[in-house]
Amino acid sequence: MIDSADSPLSSARRELLRGSAATLAAIGLASAGLGASLAGPAAATRKRFPQGFIWGTATAGHQVEGNDVNSDTWFLEQLQPSLFAEHVGDANNSLELWPVDLDLVHSLNLNAYRFSLEWSRIEPEPGQFSLAILDHYLRMIEGCRARGLQPIVTFNHFSTPRWFGGRGGWTNAESPALFERFCERAARHLARAIGHATTLNEPNLLRLLGWLNLPPAMQDLQRAMLDKAAKTLGVAKFTAGNAANSEDIDAIQTNLLEGHRRGRQAIKAARPELPVGVSLAVMDDQAVGAHSRRDEKRTQVYGAWLEAVNERAQYDEQGAVPAPHGVPLDGMGREIYPPSLANAVRYVHEQTSRPILITEHGLVTDDDTQRAAFIPAALSHLADVMAAGVPVLGYVHWTLMDNFEWIFGYKPHFGLCSVDRQSFKRQPKPSAAVLAAIARSNTVG
What we know:
By secondary structure, the protein is α/β, with parallel strands linked by helices. Helix content is 40%, strand content 14%. The protein has 15 helices and 15 strands. Strands 1-7-6-5-4-3-12-11 form an eight-stranded mixed β-sheet. Helix 13 runs parallel beside helix 14 (368-387) and helix 14 packs parallel to helix 15. The chain is globular and about 65 Å long. The N and C termini lie far apart (46 Å).
């Protein structure tokens, strides 16, 4: 369903965009989210990153592959009512054009590519695994290696099989075991050539969204959509990987935590030395005033996952504090704040004492000059915290190319490259050259 620009649903979506957080992935490690920044003061000398530093960019299966007809998300996109602004359709046709994508990553002087496995393609029906699709992802992994790219593989980036959603998704007590079975089968086929792996992408996102005061119209529409999905399939409850009602969030987090634990064990069993972690949605939370709710929010959203990173967010006794008047804003209406990435990285390391791999960090904007300025500014602050002793293994930018942004459709633009919706031609933006130069020199400043 495509809503008009002035509809209540469109207004609700804009509100969610203004408050949405970023992504962070942790591997024992951690990752940064959609934090934003503009160029700060020029450094007197360039700051050097360690030899072997990971420079990469990321995509996610449902957002770029197209026609994932067995997934929970595809199913929800077809319903009426639906929270999705439009259907994913062919997406960027990366299921076919993945070699073009890998060539593009290589051309940007990067040495890593993060992508995800689509569970619903690998296991379209319970216990039925597609060798053809497993071989497809193996070719992608081997294609990365052939181009000198380290494959960073996410085993589940939100979307799950429709049959999994029809069993209640992550509310089902059996969901951790089902995810473990999937991870075991996929890892047995793929793990030998993976560089780093994450089990889940942003499993704390639903709890984070609870702090964003989502418009009632959006929450009501989501409930109606999930009810329609359950009714259509003739099941008691339908829950998707990134769509669930508020009363289910506690059960979902319990099962996601166990799913991560069991999934990680299954992947490690296939290859014990493979680094395996989890990707979280986090923010650079900052306390304002004597009675700030920041620590309450951190406990609820990150506590069980011990992580953080993204754009800055300030909290006083009432909750979230709006961005100061006159500060630069990104395409979602959020403050563009250069130190956010470094602050989040520092926080995660303080909480975990683990080395950090930043698996997502980017900016949503139609003005690529903002992105071109934000990349070196954020990396300059990151270099500073690294010089202060925080171990960071690498930086993976979100995202390689403009793609399908879930309920918002194709309107938000995070990409280093644009994509023609008819020909699927990828075209690097000026910001891509900025990141390429930094990666080539392994310095910023």
